[in-house]
Amino acid sequence: MSSIQLTGLGGCQEVGRSSFLLDFGEKVLFDNGVKLTPKETEYPLPVETNLDGIVISHAHLDHSGNLPHLFVESDFMCYMTPPTLDIAKILWYDTLKISGYEGIDLDWSETEIKKTEKFTFPVHYRKPVDITKNSTLEFFDAGHIIGSAMSKVSFQDKSFLYTGDFKKDETRLFKGADLDVGNVDYVMMESTYGDRNHSSRKDIEKLFVEEVQNTIDKGGWALVPAFAVGRSQEVIDILKEYRVNAPIYLDGMGQKAARVMLSYHKYLKNHKFLKKALEDVIWIRGNQMRKKALKQPSVIVTTAGMLQGGPVHHYLKTVHSDPNSSILLTGYQVETTPGRKLMETKRIDIDGSEYTVKAKVEKFDFSAHASQQEMLDSLKKWSPSKVFLVHGDKDVMPVFKGRIEEDLGISTHILKQGEKTKL
Ligand SMILES: [Zn+2]
Ligand SMILES: [Zn+2]
């Protein structure tokens, strides 16, 4: 058999700009994302070869954000689930809008988004498709966000599984990853939480709801910054499940994402409940409604999850100085973001001035990524002959590699940026 090679183009010893090239005589690219930092956007290394196909694991920009760029000069067939395409389109158009405001010169435009769409072949979970002459792709539910997929590519007599971002355990919105993927020889796995475990989801939900209700009972506002895709809707679902007694508002890009999510019944654990929950809350349109939401104690779920722009700033102006209110962070806060600064220093910038926040600040670990134990359990089930680790911090990955090798005895390689390695 000819040799098989894997090249790391981005998302190696880092979280962001994921992109990996698998070459088994035919060339398949997994993901093509960007890394957004407050200062700049970082891109994966260029693809310097003709591709036979592109597989996109899920819509998050660190996996899909650079895809339209690949269509500036070439056409490739792309494979992703239908919700991934719909959510990615929202994010790509938003990227165009933001780059317009900030005067950033992207080399792609609406034309490339349309081209990407045209060349995308929709693939559903557990429906194998031939993507090149000699290979087959099968998607399995990754349990991370709507439409997220683990991608199994089979070629010659081998098979390669790329987990993308995945969550094995159940959450309010998703059943958890579908681990019944059959035989796999190689696994390329994310390792975001390779060095730690999460508290039980139920415990986190309870603590969160308690904090919200306490705030309301004190007469304050519970301001909940949340990511647009997944977290905003999950938080609403939780607030309704636990019957929080207060007006609940949904603001920001989470509204658009919610519409897409609700159009895909089969991709959600409990479509009916989520639909009812989202219909029961008040969708904010415009500043008049924002003012009204602050007239009485209320819960406001809004973007941006790390306070980088978005309508959350409108509310922060009022909420930050109220000791009876709370700001409840619901996701990972990347270093150097305003959310991280708030979490660590209780300070925040509003309209050019810095304030010490009087409202309570709390963070809840609603992760959509597998914990170390979830990942080890998954690998144990799959029992591949080799593991490649990607999508993790430099300090975290060796810890996880150690655990895989010690506990499971599976040879594990940390893929490096620009490295081409034989399988
Ligand atoms: Zn993701
Ligand atoms: Zn990711």
Automatic annotation (TrEMBL):
Entry superkingdom: Archaea
GO molecular function: hydrolase activity; RNA endonuclease activity
Record carries keyword Hydrolase: yes
Domain Metallo-beta-lactamase: 16-216
UniProtKB keywords: Hydrolase
Signal peptide residue numbers: none
Keyword Cell wall biogenesis/degradation belongs to the record: no
Stretches assigned to the Beta-Casp domain: 232-342
Listed name of the protein: MBL fold metallo-hydrolase
Species whose genome carries this gene: Candidatus Iainarchaeum sp
